[in-house]
Amino acid sequence: MSASIEERLYTIRYKADEQSHLIVKDQEVCAQCPSKDCLFFCPADVYDWDEGTRTLSIAYENCVECGTCRLGCSEQNIEWKYPMGGYGIAYKLG
Amino acid sequence: MAEERFDCVVVGGGPAGAAAAYTMAKAGLKVALIDRGEFPGAKNVFGGVLFRSQLEDLLPEFWKEAPLERLIVEERLMLLDEQGMVTLSHRNPGFADPPNSWSAMRAQFDAWFAGKAEKAGAVPVYQTTVTELLQEGDRVVGVRTDREDGDLYADIVIVADGVNSLLGKALGVHREWQPDEVSLGVKEIIHLPRNVIESRFNLEGNEGASIEFLGDTLGMTGLGFLYTNKESISIGVGIMVNDLQKARVKPYAVLDHVKQHPYIRKLIAGGEVEEYAAHLIPEGGFHSMPPLAGNGWMICGDAAQMVNAVNGEGTNLAVLSGRLAGETAILAHVRGDYSLGMLDHYNESIRASIVFKDLKKYSGIHGLLSGPERRVLFGKLPGVLNESISDYMSVNGITKEEKQKMLIHQLRDAAGGNVELLRLGLKGWRAINR
Question: How many whole angstroms separate alpha carbon A77 and alpha carbon B151?
Fold first, then answer.
């Protein structure tokens, strides 16, 4: 009964802001980052590495606002803010 | 709301903020309660229970009207290895009468609690994110929000913005948490019919059970939990972020792994995931608590690392700290003094309370959970314990004397020898006895 991450995220209510509250400070730092831990530790799979364009993409609209990337990025290359008031995740149970 | 003045602005509508706002509003102070969620609680998650004690001091018999799930009548502590488990469990009528704790849905409970503060007179300012603290010299004088003309001025700002506490960082009173000072909790609420839950956990009526488990978190420092709700089960794991960084394992994969454990699997079988959630949990304990007050501000709850990870206490410490900050604000209001000299009264109240005393007693826990011993505690030991107890309980012609020897040998080897076992035992004892 393991659900995929997409199925899991589908159970959460969101009100997505038009602007991302997560910003990669410098894509070059990500390109050079040997470990790219963010591809693993994020509980919502927000981060994805595109080898073709050599950029880190951010699916901020799936972010559960936990803050793991804020503390876990070994390069401290993620600018992490709260979404605008009223936006972002809205648990119905929590 | 241009340049509106309050006696106190509370940032964060979780248990700490709601308790502070309720305390002050009830005493007649002009209070604003700010929350960035669609409603207070919309962003809140826990892997825990709500305790009666500290909440009752604010709201007597709150359980008669608060949205709670089940009254916890049984607690189990399980040490899991991949296939089996060793359990310590307790149930006793006196344990739940008077009630000790309940399972709950935080999005529902926190909204209710903040509503209590509103009814007492606190002005709700929801769907509003505080972007910075307004300061004049070394004094905090208000907050800037993301609303138009969104500056709110106040004699005191109570910072209760949760584990990430961007405002606490902005105050500069404490540095950023290190990855070993927080764990990431991932959780699922799994729907199951009421009668299925009651028969699986031996419950009736509104009785509930809680399970905390240790081990089988793929060798990482982590704890799991399982709580029965009315018609669902909350199951989750909390993994230290420093371990998660190294392991390169998806956090939800750890949860999936635990859900497939032969014992756990049967408890949740047939259920459907109603909601997935993830949240950071403060794990730094005593040594991570920042200074708690300054000129014009106080900080409470998760934002100040007030979590007792050993006993799963957090919401109650948040409520207590919020109330104590609120009471200090009332005194400050009467005296017209909002300086550190006055607000330090909050610091003293915390020092005299279970927040400080319990976290101090357990001040060695963080070292144990982040030091090299964690490999033994969370990796080897649960497995060896399961194995040795199986051996000890099997009737197979081996004498009891021999079995006892084997059991001690197995434990000793898991720790890395006699000296190491002794050291681990001592360190463990000291970790919870300062």
Answer: 30
Range name among A34-48, B55-69, B360-374 with the lowest pLDDT average: B360-374
Cα angle A11, A17, A22 (rounded to 5 degrees) comes to 90
Is residue B303 within 8 A of residue B160, CB to CB? The reply is yes
Alpha-carbon distance of B58 to B13, in angstroms, equals 16
Of A71, A86, A90, which has the smallest distance from its Cβ to B179's Cβ?
Answer: A71
pLDDT for the residue numbered B327: 98
Amino acid identity, position B173 = V
| Contact criterion met (CB below 8 Å) for B104 and B19 | no
Contact: B178, A89; criterion CB under 8 Å: no
Do B181 and B283 contact (CB within 8 A), yes or no?
yes
- Structure ipTM over 0.90, yes or no: yes
Q: What confidence tens digit (pLDDT) does each residue in B208-228 have?
A: 999 999 988 887 888 899 999
Domains of chain A: 5-89 (3.30.70.20)
Position B372 scores a pLDDT of 82
Which residues in chain A have their CB less than 8 angstroms from residue B145's CB? Answer: 85
First to last CA, chain A: 21
Distance CA B122, CA B113 (A): 12
Q: Which of B128, B176, B249 sits opposite A85 (nearest CB)?
A: B128
Contact A64 B277 (CB under 8 A): yes
Instruction: Find out whether B158 and B325 touch, Cβ atoms under 8 Å.
Output: yes
Q: Is A30 in CB contact (< 8 Å) with chain B?
A: no
Which of these, B375, B183, B164, lies nearest to B284 by C-alpha position?
Answer: B183
Q: Which two tokens stand for residue B248?
A: 């390169």
Cβ within 8 Å of residue B392, ≥6 positions away: B403, B404, B406, B407
Coil, strand or helix at B305: coil
The Cα A56–Cα B177 span in angstroms is: 24
Q: Which pair of tokens denotes residue B184?
A: 């990431």
Cα dihedral across residues B269, B109, B66, B63: positive or negative:
positive
Q: Rounded to an integer, what distance in angstroms lies between the CA atom of residue B22 and that of residue B1?
A: 21
Instruction: Supply B86's token pair.
Output: 């060793």
Angle between the N-to-C axes of helices B354-361 and B340-351, in degrees from 0 to 180, rounded to the nearest 10: 60
Polymer length in residues for chain A: 94
Taking the CB of residue B398, how many other CB atoms lie within 10 A of it?
12
What is the chain A residue with the closest CA to B246? A37
Contacts of B36 in chain A (CB under 8 A): 82-83, 85-86, 88
In chain B, which residue's Cα lies nearest the Cα of A92?
Answer: B107
The domains of chain B, with CATH numbers, are 4-67+106-177+288-361 (3.50.50.60), 179-282 (3.30.9.90), 365-431 (no CATH)
Query: Tokens at residue B348, please?
Result: 């003293």
- At B254, the amino acid letter reads V
